[in-house]
Amino acid sequence: MEKNMLLSQKPMLLSQNMRMPYPERFPKVRKTMCRIKQVLTERALVEEDASRRKALREIINDL
């Protein structure tokens, strides 16, 4: 959610010639999302059902 909010807020503020408040949030959110994806990928890899594993990977790749 935070990622989507930041990505939608950035163009809006730029169009109004305003600066992003707390721009340091971008790297923090990116790092957090990478960690979440890593955990989800690890869980998908240990999934025994091939079709479920494939579905989980598709979900992870859409994040």
Can you put this structure into words, describing what you see?
This protein is mostly helical. Helices cover 76% and strands 0% of the residues. The chain has 3 helices and no strands. The radius of gyration is 16 Å and the shape is elongated. It starts with a helix and ends with a helix.
Shape: elongated
What radius of gyration results from the CA coordinates? 16 Å
- Total domain count: 1
In percent, how much strand structure appears in the residues?
under 5%
Number of strands: 0
Indicate the low-confidence ranges by residue numbers: none
In whole angstroms, how far apart are the ends?
10 Å
Mean pLDDT: 90
Give the % helix.
Answer: over 70%
Tags for this model:
Ribosomal_uL29_mit; mitochondrion; MRP-L47_sf; structural constituent of ribosome; 3 helices; ribonucleoprotein; mainly alpha
Question: Gist?
Answer:
One of its GO terms (molecular function) is structural constituent of ribosome. With 63 residues, this protein is mostly helical. Helix content is 76%, strand content 0%.
